[in-house]
Predict the structure of SagB/ThcOx family dehydrogenase.
Amino acid sequence: MERFTQNRNFMKSGFAKDIFSDQEKELPQPPLQKPYEDGFKVFELPNINKDIVLKQDVHKCISDRKTHREYIKKALTVDELSYLLWATQSVKEIRGDNYATVRPVPSAGARHPFETYLAVQNVEGLRKGIYRYLALEHKLLFLYEEEEIEEKITSGTLGQKFAGTAAVNFIWGCLPYRGEWRYDKLAHKVMLIDAGHVCQALYIACEALGLGTCAIAAYDQDLMDEMIKVDGEDEFVVYMAPVGRI
């Protein structure tokens, strides 16, 4: 039982204890969005099209929500991808002097410590490859082309072949200092809770569009970090979800 104790304690609240965060030290906060260098291709995403919503009744979306591990080989539209990104991580409002963002999902202290990466395999108008969602602008940043996405996603998810058959895989990278800046060592619990909010929003949005998804927490950390080209220390993958037609 002792081997479980440390992780059980990690799940508990420590907020009654005194902490002295970098925010309280008046240190500069990390940027709301990960910067990128000039030279990368940026794609404009279409405006949100409510007409593509097949299931308007939120009660039905919640009651019908379930995990799907089988997808048909039919492309997603860019309108659908735009909607899913909007529903999960779009920026509705910037508060203060670039202090915080308001999004469709809650986040402790409005820190929103995630960057959304996409392993695109079958989306109309987009070539196979790895992209990053620019939430502040509602655009896509093309990182690199990858023709062997199916094989690499399957390997990266420890042999879960259905992930490799999806039209697109959502891959959430966490930049922990966004949360640590405000909550110090207590940040890590709430950031993982935040990841659950994001993925549930994806589930409900997929249900509304007639698509399927499956949350994945079992993956090869090194392979997935390498896929999105992050260092595994200041940014690393924390959650994934393939999306496809059902």
Q: What stands out?
A: Strands lie at 42-44, 93-95, 100-102, 114-120, 129-134, 139-145, 168-174, 211-213, 236-245. Residues 48-245 form a domain with the NADH Oxidase fold (CATH 3.40.109.10). The helical segments are 2-10, 58-64, 78-89, 149-156, 161-164, 177-183, 187-209, 221-227. Residues 187-209 form the longest helix (23 residues).
